[in-house]
Amino acid sequence: DQQVKQNSPSLSVQEGRISILNCDYTNSMFDYFLWYKKYPAEGPTFLISISSIKDKNEDGRFTVFLNKSAKHLSLHIVPSQPGDSAVYFCAAANTGGFKTIFGAGTRLFVKA
Amino acid sequence: KAGVTQTPRYLIKTRGQQVTLSCSPISGHRSVSWYQQTPGQGLQFLFEYFSETQRNKGNFPGRFSGRQFSNSRSEMNVSTLELGDSALYLCASSRGQGGYMNTEAFFGQGTRLTVV
């Protein structure tokens, strides 16, 4: 039962270009969406989030877009930097149910 | 403010044995969630504890259990280990009191369990 899907296991982007990571969800009860970044040998760290009442949230080079009707969100990184190379996890939460479900992750490679 | 601490960092066990992993959350956080990470499967939700009570549970067999103590520290136990239990086990703490800001989770570095 994969309620949160990241269909691209990996993505390779040239430094300075835009990285777009995608995520789909199935449960309409989710009302909060988060992106986490994970480097090897470290735990995931929170990157950016968006509530279901918004369709866009921006933080520096990172922007998350939410399309509720399509149950789709995406993370845009622009410009991409080599230090952005990591695994990115999409997560969806029902803040009333106190449960956060993660996707399988997308490994981003940013080439210098 | 100290982060989430998981011990041990690495563990090698034999099939059939049992193992206990420990997690100390960020001070003031009352919710502790456990996840299993395996290649290609992402972070699979195991369970979540809040104020010593299991509030949510994932789809794992009963061999996986946990508990939370009054100081919010949590332990996860896996009995009768199988080769497929080899994974990175991550613990995450949050305020856990509902609402957007209380949902953001802070992760420990994880415990790498290898079953041979």
Describe what you observe in this structure.
The complex is a heterodimer of chains A (112) and B (116). Helix content of chain A is 0%, strand content 56%. In chain A, the strands form 2 sheets. In chain A, strands 2, 4, 5, 9, 10 and 11 form a 6-stranded mixed beta sheet that branches. Chain B has 116 residues and is mainly β. In chain B, the strands form 2 sheets. In chain B, strands 2, 4, 5, 6, 9, 10 and 11 form a 7-stranded mixed beta sheet that branches. In chain B, a hairpin with a 3-residue loop joins β4 and β5. The radius of gyration of chain B is 13 Å and the shape is globular. The termini of chain B are far apart. The mean pLDDT of chain B is 92. The chains are: A mainly beta (112), B mainly beta (116). Chains A and B meet through β4, β5, β9 and β10 of A and β4, β5 and β10 of B.
Biggest sheet record of chain B: 7 strands, mixed
The residue-averaged pLDDT of chain A reads 93
Please provide the count of β strands of chain A.
Answer: 11
C-alpha geometry of chain A? globular
Please state the structural category of chain B: mainly beta
Question: Strand-residue fraction of chain B?
Answer: over 45%
Number of helices of chain A: 0
Mean pLDDT of chain B: 92
Uncertain runs of chain A are none
Annotation field: number of helices of chain B: 0
At a glance:
The complex is a heterodimer of chains A (112) and B (116). Chain A has 112 residues and is mostly beta strands. In chain A, 0% of the residues lie in helices and 56% in strands.
Descriptors:
heterodimer; A: 112 residues; mainly beta; 0% helix; globular; B: 116 residues; 7-stranded mixed beta sheet; 4-stranded antiparallel beta sheet; 52% strand
